[in-house]
Design a protein that fits this description.
alpha/beta
Length: about 220
């Protein structure tokens, strides 16, 4: 297995979510994930691109049985250390070629991983394939319409190793590559990184009420037919 670009990001990735803004980002992103995924006790779930398990642990806490896959062994090691649960299994694997039989999972989700793959439709098809008939699939990504994406594009142009080759997609573009006939799309993180912490809850509330499509975080969900 070749080294992954994420191998050196384990500590920095985890640290980001301990910052004041990072904690709020995690709170709102997790809320949107749970809204669409609705994980339940005993269900078999796949977390595709689990990283160090920042969101995986929250799903496990609901009583689900969860398999996490990632290309980065250091990231997976972090997830294993975080979980230490008999309900979690980790595997080094590629989003575009999942090593599971058709219909292996009750629900499948992938958090901000598809933007690192050029062929997003291939990822969507694989996630749909391994979900059982009637099972739920939820995919989240960084919104090309949001201001956070523009900041990360600039960092990529400046040589940032994580954002140098990244594929931001809008809600419409995500819908276009989703296999499901009835697709639900929502966004979160309507605030900017430099907004005051005190202002963020109200900004986020207004963004949800207005159903804006410009939130930095896009979540798309469908039930496999």
């Amino acid at each position: 297995m070749q080294p992954s670009r994420f191998d050196t990001w384990t500590d920095r990735y985890d640290h980001w979510f301990t910052t004041p803004v990072g904690r709020l980002v995690k709170h709102y992103e997790a809320a949107l994930l749970f809204d669409l995924l609705d994980p339940r006790p005993g269900e078999r779930l796949l977390d595709a691109g689990c990283g160090t398990g920042i969101f995986t642990q929250d799903v496990l806490d609901r009583g689900s049985l969860l398999t996490g896959i990632d290309l980065s062994i250091p990231m997976l090691t972090g997830a294993i250390d975080r979980m230490r649960s008999s309900g979690f299994a980790a595997l080094c694997a590629d989003l575009c070629a999942l090593p599971f039989a058709d219909g292996s999972f009750d629900k499948v989700f992938s958090m901000t991983a598809i933007e690192f793959v050029a062929d997003g439709s291939k990822v969507m098809a694989e996630l749909d394939r391994v979900a059982r008939r009637g099972g739920r699939v939820v995919v989240t990504t960084l919104n090309s319409l949001g201001p956070w994406a523009e900041q990360r594009r600039r960092k990529g142009l400046d040589g940032h190793d994580l954002f140098a080759d990244i594929h931001f997609r809008s809600p419409e573009e995500m819908r276009a590559i989703a296999p499901g006939a009835r697709v639900v799309t929502k966004t979160a993180i309507h605030f900017r990184k430099d907004d005051s912490l005190e202002a963020i809850p109200e900004i986020e509330r207004r963004g949800r009420e207005q159903d804006l499509d410009t939130g930095a975080f896009v979540a798309i969900g469908w039930d496999k037919v």
